[in-house]
Amino acid sequence: MNDATQNEKNSTSMSKMRKIERKKEIKKMKRDAYLSKIVSISLIVLVCVGFVALFAYSVQRSINRVRPSSDFSARLTEDGLIKDVQVSDHIVLGDYSNIIIPKSEVEYTDKDMEKDIQELLENHGTLETETDALIKDGDQVSIDYVGTVDGKEFEGGNTKNAGTDLVIGSGTYVDDFEEQLIGHGVGDKVTVEVTFPADYKEESLAGKDAVFEVEINGIYNIPELTDAFVKENLSEYAMTADGYKEYLKKSKYEDKLNTWLEDYLMDNTTVSSYPEKYIKHLKSIQKFEDQSYFEYMNQLYTSFGSTPPYASFEQYIGMSEKEYDAGLEKKVQDPAKMALLFQMIYQKEGLKVTLDEFDKYLGDKATEDYDTLIKSYGKGYIMQDLIHEKVLEYLKENSVIE
Q1: Which uninterrupted H or E stretch holds 101?
Q2: Which among 101, 199, 211, 261 counts the fewest CB atoms within 10 Å?
Q3: Which residues contact 361 (CB under 8 A, 6 or more apart)?
Q4: Beta-bridge partner residues of 210
Q5: Span 238-264, average pLDDT
Q6: Is the pLDDT of residue 170 over 70?
Q7: Could you read off the pLDDT of 310-326 as tens digits, one per residue?
């Protein structure tokens, strides 16, 4: 009896134990399932957050990215004014009445003219590769060289047979490099020994002795400024040498005067804020122009059978596109300031550009027909340029040069 009872108790105890264990297993399974569910939900949430973050980053990057635009007149009215802008909300203009212009800062001297004419003639020079002439002071030559310091080549010291032009006596190269070429002729190979200045910009070369193995490729034949030369090359400006000098004197003086007035206005104008839409527009135009010039440079090299110097736009600008875009804001601020201040004077003084002035401007500037020019830039962009000229004329009439 006691044994039977004890066995029954034992059986009951084991049954309870199994039930308890089973309950524990079920409870554990439920807990594991719950935890698994939580983990799964957490992973889904994290993935979703990741996608949202990635999407947000992509959107933000897209927003920050400057898109180039060739629509030069997009933010201008047909009258050349900046759209939706009250200029007085953005700038405080300095006093521009009775401006006194120092004559010494705008005059175009005979020395200036001689320099400009010499540069012009050098640009029209022809390279003579078969001549018995010897190099003399003032000659423009084409050379190649390999430079070494302590027997080792240094960066920037090798033309790599690409040829480089040099005017003898210009002081372009260090020490007496140029003078050591005098008396040599085309095809000669000359060993030139120089010493870099102690304060040379490249510290690793400062004060060092260098040896250049130079080969003379040719000597340029520089034309003279004659009536025949002017008629053949400069007929859009004049028909005689004296006539071209007069044109140069007048146009260069006007350029210096205009630049002085622009600098004066910029220095005496304060910007409180820049119109956001106009700044965005200028950034797009600037990027379009920079990219266009990059493509033009590569096409130019290709047309001459040479390898383009830049493999990408980023290589051309010397930075990432992201860095370039970030820098555009500052780059376009001065052009924006200039446009704002000239528009303010134009409106304040009640100036107007006439239809005749518009047509004359196109006639003077255009290398294309009227319709093509309007289509390329838009009337607003051309009018804005005319506003600039109109204001400069007004300021010159109301300024004193002394």
Answers
A1: strand 99-101
A2: 199
A3: 382, 385, 386, 389
A4: 194
A5: 97
A6: yes
A7: 999 999 999 999 999 99
Q: Exposed, middle or buried: residue 252 (CB in 10 Å: 0-12, 13-18, 19+)?
A: middle
User: Measured over all CA atoms, what is the biggest interatomic distance in the chain, rounded to whole angstroms?
Assistant: 145
| Residue linked to tokens 């090299």 | 301
* CA 49 to mean position of chain CA atoms: 39
Query: Distance of CA 363 to CAs 148, 217, 227, 275, Å?
Result: 55, 44, 26, 33
Give strand pairing partners of 92. 270
Distance CA 121, CA 82 (A): 42
Over range 1-14, report the average pLDDT.
40
User: At 161, phi and psi to the nearest 5?
Assistant: 60, 20
Question: DSSP string covering 213-263, please?
Answer: EEEEEEEEEPPP--HHHHHHH-TTT-SSHHHHHHHHHHHHHHHHHHHHHHH
| 354/362 Cα distance (integer angstroms) | 13
Q: Can you tell me the distance from the alpha carbon of 360 to that of 163, in angstroms, rounded to the nearest whole number? A: 44
Could you report the per-residue pLDDT of 15-72, keeping only the tens digit for each?
A: 434 444 444 444 444 444 443 443 444 444 444 444 444 343 344 444 569 999 999 9
Instruction: Give helix 110-123 / helix 241-267 axis angle, nearest 10°.
Output: 110
Beta pairing class for 99-101 and 399-401: parallel
User: Using 50, 70 and 90 to split pLDDT, how confident is the model at 365?
Assistant: low
- Cα–Cα dist 184/179, whole Å: 10
- Mean pLDDT on 361-387: 84
Q: What is the pTM of this model?
A: 0.73
Residue range 283-312: mean pLDDT, rounded: 93
Whole-Å CA distances, 28 to 32, 165, 204:
6, 87, 74
